[in-house]
Amino acid sequence: MDRSLGGRLLIARLRDAGWDARTLAEEYGDAEAQAMSDDEWIASGTASGFVLLAKDHRIASRPLEALAIYIHDARAIAFANGNLTATQMGDLC
To answer: Cα Rg for the chain, rounded, in angstroms?
Structure first.
């Protein structure tokens, strides 16, 4: 789960629904997660077998991120509406 999705409410909701969900901070620690570029976490998350979840729908249109998604054959879900609450995103998942 990308940093933009928050760290508590959505992750708890996904886990309650049976997902094996993890945040970047849980995987790498807060400091490293904050410093990671999008192309880094895309590569790492994909290599670990995760479906990537992001709130920034522009992730697929920026050259470096789009290339990382393509090169690593990432499975990524991005919410197009940046104003969704954790409850709304959980409902959509």
So the answer is: 12
